């Protein structure tokens, strides 16, 4: 059964509302991160009335690599959002003596603190007249004409769950799917350094990757992607060259973690509830496309609702994420083989044209 038929069947099975159940807004977005706020901004541009439910005070932080690909930078500018940050020219892979780098053809990316990104989007939403409700949605019920969110007791025609990797709404709707393979986690910390790289550097270790993202002329984000449960400092020490470079650097934040990273959903549309961002499904942060894909997905979702065709969002999501899912799944498969993992960076150096093409594909978001 395709996604449209599944959504239509779900809607037909829902009871009708009572006369007192008129919607307060067209769209309630649950989650005030970049995905939720971008969805709200696009929906407002389509003429929908929107509210965002986010119990955490702004700015909302999250462990991530903090690099926005060129496609994501363009998507932010299209929304009138330009957070402070540091431009980077491309991607550099590093392992032992091997180096491979490729410059983005689509223009620079942007290294930006997660808190700065969320705050800039929250300000844009406020300026657009979107209410940011400091409430926690504790459950949802829906019928053929709307969704009622418990907690704020707010009724909307549609609800978007942009509530993250662990999405309580996805789980409550029975849309969680078990994922195979070892769990991977992300760890992040910031360091003051004398000079930042002009690329995002991906250091490949034996069992983990370290991402160095420039955020300011004297600040970098160093994020680890790993299947290990050892402390951040212990895992960072496994990258000899990177550890030596950071020896005199001053940590300016505590370690923040996220995971398990891989998540899957049976579908992204369930009646009048739609899943967005990490809640819609996530493979890994390996290619750094998370923010750009979230912004593109937010635009597509809002367009589907504006056309009164939410069922089309499933196909749009699959189209937008297809390359990301294929590339990331392939790299993870190679990472699980010790022999193939050792060859990833040398292969990128030996075949610079292929590496440049892969980076160019990632950069468009």
How would you describe what is shown here?
The chain is α+β, with helices and mostly antiparallel strands and 365 residues long. It has helices spanning 3-13, 34-45, 70-78, 114-127, 168-172, 232-236, 240-245, 290-306, 313-336, 338-350, 352-363; strands at 25-30, 50-53, 67-68, 86-88, 90-95, 98-103, 109-111, 132-133, 139-142, 147-150, 154-161, 185-192, 200-204, 208-216, 219-226, 250-251, 256-258, 269-270, 273-275. Strands 1, 2, 8, 9, 10, 11, 18 and 19 form an eight-stranded mixed sheet that branches. Strands 5, 6, 12, 13, 14, 15, 16 and 17 form an eight-stranded mixed sheet that branches. Residues 1-20 have low confidence and may be disordered.
What is the gyration radius calculated from CA atoms? 21 Å
How far do the termini sit from each other? 29 Å
Distinct helical segment count? 11
Structural class, from secondary structure content? alpha+beta
* Mean pLDDT value: 91
Provide the helix percentage.
25-40%
Secondary structure layout plus pairing:
Elements: H1 3-13, E1 25-30, H2 34-45, E2 50-53, E3 67-68, H3 70-78, E4 86-88, E5 90-95, E6 98-103, E7 109-111, H4 114-127, E8 132-133, E9 139-142, E10 147-150, E11 154-161, H5 168-172, E12 185-192, E13 200-204, E14 208-216, E15 219-226, H6 232-236, H7 240-245, E16 250-251, E17 256-258, E18 269-270, E19 273-275, H8 290-306, H9 313-336, H10 338-350, H11 352-363
Parallel strand pairs: 1-2, 1-11, 2-8, 5-13, 11-19
Antiparallel strand pairs: 3-7, 4-7, 5-6, 9-10, 10-11, 12-15, 12-16, 12-17, 13-14, 14-15, 18-19
């Amino acid at each position: 059964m395709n996604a449209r038929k599944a959504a239509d069947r779900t809607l037909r099975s829902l009871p009708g509302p009572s006369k007192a159940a008129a919607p307060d807004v067209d769209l309630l977005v649950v989650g005030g991160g970049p995905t939720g706020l971008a969805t709200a901004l696009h929906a407002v541009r389509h003429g929908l009335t929107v509210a965002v439910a986010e119990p955490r005070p702004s700015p909302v932080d999250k462990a991530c690599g903090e690099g926005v690909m060129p496609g994501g930078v363009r998507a932010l500018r299209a929304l009138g959002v330009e957070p402070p940050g540091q431009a980077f020219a491309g991607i550099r892979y590093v392992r032992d003596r091997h180096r491979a780098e490729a410059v983005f053809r689509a223009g620079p990316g942007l290294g930006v603190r997660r808190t700065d990104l969320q705050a800039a989007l929250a300000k844009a939403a406020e300026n657009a007249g979107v209410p940011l409700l400091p409430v926690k949605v504790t459950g949802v019920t829906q019928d053929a004409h709307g969704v009622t969110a418990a907690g704020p007791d707010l009724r909307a025609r549609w609800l978007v769950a942009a509530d993250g990797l662990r999405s309580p709404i996805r789980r409550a709707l029975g849309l969680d799917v078990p994922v195979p393979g070892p769990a991977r986690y992300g760890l992040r910390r910031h360091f003051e350094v004398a000079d930042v790289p002009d690329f995002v550097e991906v250091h490949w270790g034996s069992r983990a990757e370290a991402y160095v993202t420039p955020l300011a002329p004297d600040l970098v984000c160093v994020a680890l992607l790993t299947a290990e449960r050892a402390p951040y400092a212990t895992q960072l020490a496994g990258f000899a060259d990177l550890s030596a470079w950071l020896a005199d650097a001053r940590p300016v934040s505590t370690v923040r973690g996220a995971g398990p990273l891989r998540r899957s959903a049976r579908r992204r549309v369930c009646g009048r509830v739609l899943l967005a961002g990490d809640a819609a499904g996530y493979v890994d942060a390996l290619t750094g496309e998370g923010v750009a894909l979230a912004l593109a997905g937010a635009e597509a979702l809002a367009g589907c609702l504006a056309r009164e065709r939410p069922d089309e969002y499933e196909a749009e999501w699959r189209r937008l994420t297809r390359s990301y899912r294929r590339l990331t799944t392939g790299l993870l498969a190679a990472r699980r083989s010790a022999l193939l993992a050792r060859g990833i960076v040398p292969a990128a150096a030996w075949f610079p044209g292929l590496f440049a093409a892969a980076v160019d594909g990632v950069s468009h978001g």
